[in-house]
Amino acid sequence: MSDEQRRVAYFAHAVEMYKKAKNQSGREAFAYLRRFGADQYIYDMFELLHVHGTEYLLEDIDGYIRERQNTALQSAGKRCATRDVPPCFKTLDASGVEDFIA
Question: How far apart are CA 78 and CA 60, in angstroms?
């Protein structure tokens, strides 16, 4: 079996284990992994991941996805913080905003 075939087989195994652990269909699990780039991560990290058990694999995938989610939230926050704010809002402090929207 070539290295490529081993990677693909391991990837299929990883998706299968993930779908069972998360009680999802294969399609749902694959789409979720792909959404966060975990599909490429599993493929790229084959040499490290394949020597560990299923529990390690699942924890590692969940950790990777959490990290990607946190990075996305931080990026979104930075984008919001750098947007142009109307001058009338620049002078409001937190208490002024709470009074304004209450």
Answer: 27
C-alpha neighbours within 13 Å on the C-beta side of residue 36: 20
Model pLDDT for residues 54-93, shown as the tens digit of each residue? 999 999 999 999 999 888 766 666 555 544 544 444 444 4
Contact 37, 72 (CB under 8 A): no
Q: Which domain holds residue 66?
A: 3-101
Per-residue model confidence (pLDDT) at position 92: 42
Q: Burial-class residue 42 by CB neighbours within 10 Å (0-12, 13-18, 19+).
A: buried
Encoded tokens for 76: 């979104």
Total domain count for the chain? 1
CA distances from 40 to 25, 67, 78 (A): 19, 15, 26
